[in-house]
Structure formats: structure tokens, C-alpha cells
Amino acid sequence: MAHFYLRMYIYIFNMVVFITFSKPQAIFKGEEDFELDINRINMGNDLLEGDIIDHPHRQRVPRNAVLNNNKLWDLPVPYVLTDYLELNAKGIIMRAFEQFRLKSCIDFKPRDSENHFISVQNNRGCSSHVGKSSKYGQQLSIGKYCDHIGIVEHEFFHALGIWHEQSRYDRDKYVTIVWKNIKRGHESNFIKISPHYSTTMGLPYDYNSVLHYQEASFSNGEGPTIITKQSKYQKIIGQRLEMSPQDVLLLNKLYKCNKSVSFMEHCNFNSQRLCGMSRCSNSSVVRWKQMRTVTGGPYSDFTNLGKTGAGLFMHASTALGKSGDTARMDSRKMTPSRKCKVQCLQFYYYHSGHKSDQLNIWLREYHHESDSKGTLQLMGQITGSPVSHWMLYHVPLNATKAFQVEFEVRKGTGQSTGGFSIDDINLSETECPHHTWQIRDVENLLRTSQYGTAVYSPRFYSPKGYAYQIVIYLRETMFGVYVRLVSGKFDDKLQWPCPDHQLTILLLDQNPHIQQRMSKQVSIATEPIHINGNTWQNPRKVGMLENRGDEPFYVNNAVGYFKFITLTQLKHRAFLKGRNTFFLITMEDISSLRSTNSLPCPTWSSPAFTSNPNEHAEGPCATE
User: According to the lineage, what is the superkingdom (predicted)?
Assistant: First the structure.
């Protein structure tokens, strides 16, 4: 089958279209949505603290692995994905591994011949041993309903040697255990770990930990079992978004390391050092400058958008000068270290110039140590009509050797009153999301829209050519998320039903630093056993014709979650920032996980951008 590598990484959509669902278009993936947590999933299982596999014949008293180096793994940690794991769970495990690599020093590898390895299985519920505990494949279960990234991370934290947060010996300073509300026979799940067997590593109590119980864990129905000393955290404990920054800090301290596997660079431009970047220009007026505000926008940096105080961002004005004037800003030189030579550059930009102005993103790659000029390749380009708010942009890179990223602003032919601004750059050795969908003022939409109103994304394409849409279903105080296949221009060349793909919808936590984020996400695999026989079939043959916009197309039933996030949860962290919400969307082929323990390196195709003759081929910027 032909592969169509249609990388639409920068498709950003700001309009919203309102259409009420007609039954039976919306199909719920499961009644659990995001309401089932580990303790409810594992109800009836005889597990220590609800999800910890204890050795038979061992006294059931928690002993923190932090003080026992024999319980720590050699890195990278070997693992095996057993045959009966659901395909969606396997894909989510791969995504969880990428989060460990991005945020911590922990890496994982498919097992070769190691005696100690993690055997990931589809047993009853979600469970794990704490730390390295046995030879020949210690069990870690990701069973039914456990296929959410926060739950997967939770269990792997146990396997790496971390106990539950509320088991800390100093927990009574931070939470109150309501013993009378605990279901009879489950009191032992709330035993504190003795300081003789554990250490807090000098870290404060973490209400945001992915390893914390929820407020009603093991409740007898008479009320919460845990009450936080600080009331603002009462609804926060037990979050299953992603690992918290302090979870990562604890893990790195435990393994005595602090360097991330895949993270490369972050810059918010608040320092005069500019993160080691250098600037140059062929003009005396078109130049990159640090700014706090710009007439005509932006009026604030993105880092502190919506907060008191203001930081700095970089701005290159195109209001003066002549067509073809350029301002360049080069990153420091970096070298990729991972096997898969793919990188993702992410940043926010504000375009207040003329529609003919350009912001070009170049990759300058050096082929050997004595190469002083490098080879340039245009990897991204922003042009067109200006906007009145910050936007998010992703640029996939393919550097195999030492490289620099160059931001070039080029003045166009029209009259400009502004220019280009950028802020909050993040660079990592990871694959970029395939698409970005930006929605303005979603909080107001929730409050004012009729119950049952749907917001549709544009039509996206997967790398292999499958067309699909994301649908947000508004329900006043919450919204659901769904995906549906739609007809596209490659349908007659594709395999049907759409086999072994995984769609991931991520609501971005807009923390400026990519390692500090705790986003909300859900993944759905196109397995034929899910929902019904037509969901992943060719929409031209089984779908309904919709006449919306300029081009009618066929649509299949939508599959997803009834409650993805509530309005209260939406205001937690930085899901809303400057009235913006961003959804990062990926549809990838994960068929290799049916027979192997890992995914192949992402396939990359050269972008096609129009660029003017490049005057800066003589070499990188020095400094101004």
C-alpha cells in the first residue's frame, strides 16, 4: 500500500462551526470515561495499597525502595509487551515512555536477554511491584480501563521504586485521613511508611503527584477518606493527567541523575543572555530585539500572559526598511543523541506585520568539526494575514549531526505597521504532533452554547492519508471529545477498515517549559473490536453526506469520551491562557506493536516552502 506522508504539523484553525449532533453520530468509547481511577478499577483485587503487587509470604508492611539500592534498575530499563495487551494500551505505554524520556533521566528498552525486566501484561486491573523485585519478568498490569497515560505512568513509577505520596511518614502535616470513612478491611491501605524504610529526599509534600490517592479512595460512601490541610488542593489530589514536576525530581534524585534523555532546549528570553543565541541583520532597522510590549501587539510576552507582571519576548519590526531586509537569530549549536534522528521545535509567535512578511525557520547542519558554515535547509515558514493573538507553531527537524536553528524575519513588499514576535521556545528529540487546533474563548463557548452543541475541527490527514475530524461536544459545565473518519482525497488507495492506528487528542497545558507541563490527553486505537463494524470503514461507503462549508464530504460515526474535562478542571494549570486553548493531534500507525516491543523511527518528508535566495549561506551569526 502506498504511503502518503502528509505532515500538516502547522494546521491551526481559529474559526468554530456549530452543529448539533443528530443521533447516533456520537458513540461513547466506554461508560468509564475518565471517572474510573485505579482503586475502582481494581475493586475486589487483593493488592497492597490498592495496586501494589506484594510477594507471597512477605509481611505486608510498605517498605520504601528509596533506601534500598538493590531495588533500583540499571538504565535503560528492559521491558516486554506481552501478546494479550490491547493495542491501545501498547501505544499509550510508548507515549508514557516518551514522557519519562522528555522529563527525566529514565529510559526504557525492549528486552534482549536480561534476567531482570518488566513484563507488561493484561491482567485484572492496573498493578505493579515497587522497584526491581524478581527475575525473569516481574509483572506490571495494564488491564481493562487502565489505558490512560496518567495510570500507565503511575504504575511505572511504582516499578521504578516509588510508593504512593500519601504513604509518606510526614503526611499528617499535609492531609487528614478520615478513618471512619474508610471501607472496612481497607484500613491497611492508609498505613504510613516508617522513616526507617523511606526518605522524602528533602522534597515537600506533592498534592499534584500522579502517585497520590484521590479524595474518596476506599470510601465507604460516608464521605472523603482524605482531606487536604490546604483546601485548594482537595479536588486536585489523585490527578491522572501526567507526572508532576516534583514526581520527576524525586525520580531523578532516586536514580542520582538529572539530565533528560530527549530534552534539548528551552528559552523564554527573560535573560539578557538569550539562551546563548546570536543575532545579526543585513539592515539597520529590521533587527531582533528584546521587548516587553509592542505598539499594535503583542502587549505581553506569552510566558506571563494573563498574569500580573511582564516578561520579555523577541520582536523584529518590519515597519521600516525595504523589501528583502532580514533579521536573523541563531540558537546555540546542539548535537542529537538518540537513535531516531527526529527533533521537534515548538514556539509561540505573534504576527502583526504585512501578509507578505515572512518568518522562516532554517536548520543549519554541520557535517564535521571543521565545517564553519554548515548546510541550510528551510524547515518552516509563517506568512500571510496578521493575527491579533499569540499562536503555537511546531517545526519537525531531521538533524543527524551538530546543528543550529535559525529564526529569520524577512520584510515583504507591503506596508507593515508591526512585525514578528516569538516566545517560549522548546526543542526536544521527539516527534512533533501532526496537527495543532487552536480554539479561542472555549470557556465562554461552554457557558453560552446550547447543551449538545458541537465544535468541529478542520479535516486533518494522517501521514498515510486517512482523513478525520476532531469533535468537541459542549455540555455547559464540561465537554466531551470525539474523533470520526471522514472522506478524503486518498480513500481509493487506502486499506479498509483503517487498521491499527492510534489517534491521540491532547489538550495542552500551556506552561512555558515543556518539561513542566501536565496536559490532558486521550488515545483511541482503530481496532475492529471497538464500537461497531462501520466506525473505521471507508466513509464513502458507510458514512453520511454532510453539506458544510465549501466541500461536502462523508462522515462516519464519532467515537470518544462523554466527559473529557470539566470547566473547573479547565481552569486548573494553564489549559486556558489568553483565552486560547490548543489541541495537539496525532494519528499514527502502531501496527508494529502487534509483533514487536517498540515503534519504528518516525518517517520524515522534506517540507515544500517558497524561499527567497538565501544571503546568509556564508555562515551563522556571530553576535551584534
Answer: Eukaryota
Q: Which fold has domain 263-428?
A: Jelly Rolls (2.60.120)
Average pLDDT, the chain: 89
CA–CA distance, 542 with 14 (Å, rounded to integer):
30
Per DSSP, the residues of 522-534 read: EEEE--TTSS-TT
∠ CA 464-359-422, rounded to 5°:
100
State the DSSP code for 4.
-
Residue with cell 515583504: 412
Buried b (16+ CB within 10 A) or exposed e, 324-333: ebbbbbbbee
Q: Please say if the pLDDT value at position 499 is more than 60.
A: yes
* β-pair partners for 534: none
Q: Map grid coordinates 516552502 to a residue.
A: 609
Three-state helix/strand/coil letters over 294-344: CCCCCCCCCCCCCCCCCCCEEEEECCCCCCCCEEEEECCCECCCCCCCCEE
Spatial CB neighbours of 56, under 8 Å, sequence gap ≥ 6: none
Q: What's the pLDDT score for residue 92?
A: 98
Q: Is 164 annotated as a binding residue?
A: yes
The model's pLDDT over 19-72, given as tens digits with 9 standing for 90+, comes to: 333 333 445 444 444 567 898 898 888 898 999 998 544 444 444 445 678 889
List Cα–Cα distances, 40 to 36, 132, 166, 236, 378, in angstroms: 6, 26, 18, 18, 51
> Is there a binding annotation on residue 154?
yes
Which residue would you say has higher pLDDT here, 81 or 25?
A: 81
Q: Is 79 exposed, middle or buried (0-12, 13-18, 19+ CB in 10 A)?
A: buried
Q: Which residues of 536-564 are buried (b: 16+ CB within 10 A; e: fewer)?
A: bbbbeebbeebeeeeeebbbbbbbbbbbb
Verify whether residue 588 is a known catalytic residue. no
Minimal CA–CA distance to 325: which of 233, 412, 206? 412
Q: Does domain 18-32+434-594 match CATH 3.40.50.300?
A: no
57 phi-psi bin (left φ>0, alpha ψ -120 to 50, beta other)? left
Element (H, E) at 586: strand 580-589
Q: What integer pLDDT is reported at residue 55 of this predicted model?
A: 57
Q: Under 8 Å CB-to-CB from 524, ≥6 apart: which residues?
A: 29, 88, 483, 502, 503, 530, 559, 560
CA angle 476, 482, 483 (to 5 degrees): 150
Q: Where are the alpha helices (DSSP H) in 320-466?
A: 442-448
Residue 153 CA, distance from chain mean position = 13
CATH for 35-163, options being 3.30.70.20, 3.40.390.10, 1.20.120.430, 3.30.40.10 = 3.40.390.10
Domain boundaries in the chain?
Answer: 18-32+434-594, 35-163, 263-428
Among 49, 98, 153, 155, which one carries the catalytic annotation?
155
- Cα 297 versus chain centre, distance: 29
State the chain's maximal CA–CA distance in angstroms: 81
